[in-house]
Amino acid sequence: MDLAKPGESPEAKSRRGEIMTMLSRMSIATVSLLLLCASSMPGSAGPVLDRVKQKAVLVVAVDPAWPPFSWRKEDGSFDGFDVDVMTGVARRLGVEVRIEVAEFSAVISGKWQGAWDVSPSVTPTKQRAENLDFPAVYAFGLGSLAVHRDNTTIRTPADASGKRIGAVKSSEYEKYLTREPFDILDIPPIKYQIDRPVVVSFETSEGGYESLAKGNGVELDGIVDSLSTLMSEIGSGRPIKIVGQPLLYTPTAIAIEKGDPEFAAELKGAIDRLREDGILTSISLKWFGIDTTAR
Prior knowledge:
By secondary structure, the protein is of the alpha/beta class. It has 2 domains: 47-140 and 252-288, Periplasmic binding protein-like II (D-Maltodextrin-Binding Protein, domain 2); 141-250, Periplasmic binding protein-like II (D-Maltodextrin-Binding Protein, domain 2, 3-Layer(aba) Sandwich). 37% of the residues lie in helices and 25% in strands. The strands form 3 sheets. A 6-stranded mixed beta sheet has the order 6-11-7-10-8-9, sandwiched between helices.
């Protein structure tokens, strides 16, 4: 639209047009500068990362009865492989760590509502990725079968067919027993060796071990769990023994609520540094006697 004034000379009109163009460019530059400043202001990171940084605390959801990964000691504090790993992650982020109790089914639902910031020991699957993000894999699990040490009839995994076999509810070990399709990335082909077991699900692995420890065939005939956990249970005096070779090989990841890529990047960087520094390996050797963190 021409806003020329009556009697305005062509030179004045041209000069006024140049001024308007300059002002327009300055407005665009000003808006761009404001947007750039806003992106660098405190609070511009993702919502969870902002919360962690502001409170200077990383809230970690764990199973309270899952040694050697995580458990609550008599004094109320927590210990275990995952506790040590997440403490190391928190230090890399420059914050403190606080351990909170959570049921596994609640964790994988993704409906945390800010109760926790992160949960370790979650096997990443496509289905779970609908509710969660998995910033980093930090260990690998060998799913294995164990029976009561007095058992003399189950000498191979195939001998457990049709028997009462326990596993943590919603875990990859329960899926193995029920033969639900696995959607884990990079998992080797699985050969199912236990046919038609009577699957007994537990909210925590502790419940399964207590049931099996009551006697050979009293409540359970066997249990499927990670090899490292089974070895730890045997070392602590559980009356169980491992049967045959591992049944499956699965990655273990950190899980977070969806929608905070900045937080995910920070966690991945922390795990990468722990691995490069050899700290992940040291923590694994401390708890399992083997390196479960190597690919």
